[in-house]
Amino acid sequence: MGKQSLGRQLKDTEALAIGNRLRVSPQKLNLVAGLIRGKSAEAALSDLTFSNRAIARDVKKVLQSAIANAENNHQLDVDQLVVAEAYIGKALVMKRMRPRGRGRSSPILKPFSNITIILREREEQV
């Protein structure tokens, strides 16, 4: 007597992976997500591999997870996958204090982010 489970939210040609609580600000993570939007999965992986940004390693793990989900869970062709969406969300912010002069203090904000990557199978071109 439970609640009815929701159906699949994505289309049959899509796969999803989510990375939660990545220790970087959403603004910086969005720069890396912008690198891979609209590219094929193979090109996006190579771009993330050779990126100089430290967070690119974590984004690459999420992308590899999305590729594995597409292949194993949804039986999609890996060679036809395209990064349809890569969007960023704001997560928690740790608040710390830094002592300053004359008995004062100033805040230090340590933000976290979430990333969602949706892969879509490219239609066959005749």
Brief characterization of the structure:
The chain is α+β, with helices and mostly antiparallel strands. It is built from three helices and three strands. Helix 2 runs antiparallel to helix 3 (56-72).
Structural account:
The chain has helices at about 25-35, 40-50, 55-70, and strands at about 15-20, 80-100, 105-120. The mean pLDDT is about 95. It is an alpha+beta fold. α2 (about 40-50) runs antiparallel to α3. It has a three-stranded antiparallel β-sheet. It contains three helices and three strands; from the N terminus they run βαααββ. The protein has one domain (about 15-120): Ribosomal protein L22/L17 (Ribosomal Protein L22, Chain A). It is flat and about 70 Å long.
Question: Any chance you could write out the topology, listing elements then pairs?
Answer:
Elements: E1 14-22, H1 26-36, H2 41-49, H3 56-72, E2 81-99, E3 105-121
Antiparallel strand pairs: 1-3, 2-3
Helix pairs in contact: 2-3
Count of helical stretches? 3
Please tell me how large the radius of gyration is. 19 Å
Spans of at least 5 consecutive residues with low confidence: none
Q: What structural class do you assign from the helix and strand content?
A: alpha+beta
Give the C-level CATH assignment.
Alpha Beta
CATH architecture field: Alpha-Beta Complex
| Strand composition percent | 35-45%
List the main descriptive attributes of the protein structure presented here:
flat, 126 residues, alpha+beta, Ribosomal Protein L22, Chain A
